[in-house]
Amino acid sequence: YMRVHEMKVSEAGTMLALINGLGAAVGAVVGGSLAGVLARRDHRWLVWAPAIATALATPLYLVAVMAPDASSSLLALAPASVLGAVYAPAALAAAHGLSGSALRATGIAVMLFVSNILGIGGGALLVGIVSDLFAGAEPTLSLRYGLVVVLFANVLAVAGYLWASRRLLRDWQD
């Protein structure tokens, strides 16, 4: 937001903290609760809910990244942040149910490790690499390209959730 929309650090930090912090809280609580209620009928809702939320969030993130001004970007980012947080409680609950009581801690640890290494570490690295590759273009465009490339991970996530739903009931361990 500072490079692309020329926002001050304090302004960008405040807006992003509010939008992402409140959005994540609302998405995790509401989305997790909804997925939990629906999962009582069918455990596959623990992967369907994140698939639906991620599919809805991805175009909103794209709009936020490519928006011509900060207001439009933040307006698209707000619902994307809510939807983007739905996956966490549902995916953790699915990992619990699939791991069985003897391996729950290991299952959660592996899931969080992979998620953080790939998502946080790999995502930031990929944004930087793509941004550097397009640095010859206008710097604001190169950063946007990097962020857009990372959004393809959401497409893979949706496919992964839907693929997981095919075997989830067979592998569930109450």
How would you explain this protein's 3D organization?
- With 174 residues, the chain is mainly α.
- Helix content is 85%, strand content 0%.
List keywords for this structure.
single chain; 174 residues; 7 helices; mainly alpha
List the helices and strands and how they pair.
Blueprint: H1 2-5, H2 9-39, H3 45-66, H4 70-84, H5 87-99, H6 104-133, H7 139-171
Helix pairs in contact: 2-3, 2-4, 2-5, 3-4, 3-5, 3-7, 5-6, 6-7
Question: What's the N-to-C terminus distance?
Answer: 46 Å
Q: Report the principal-axis shape.
A: elongated
Spatial extent as radius of gyration: 18 Å
DSSP strand count: 0
The residue fraction in helices comes out at over 70%
Main beta sheet, described?
none
Instruction: Count up the helices.
Output: 7
Proportion of residues in extended strands: under 5%
Low-confidence stretches: none
Overall mean pLDDT stands at 92
State the secondary-structure class. mainly alpha
TL;DR?
Helix 2 packs parallel to helix 4, helix 2 crosses helix 5 and helix 3 (45-66) packs antiparallel against helix 7 (139-171).
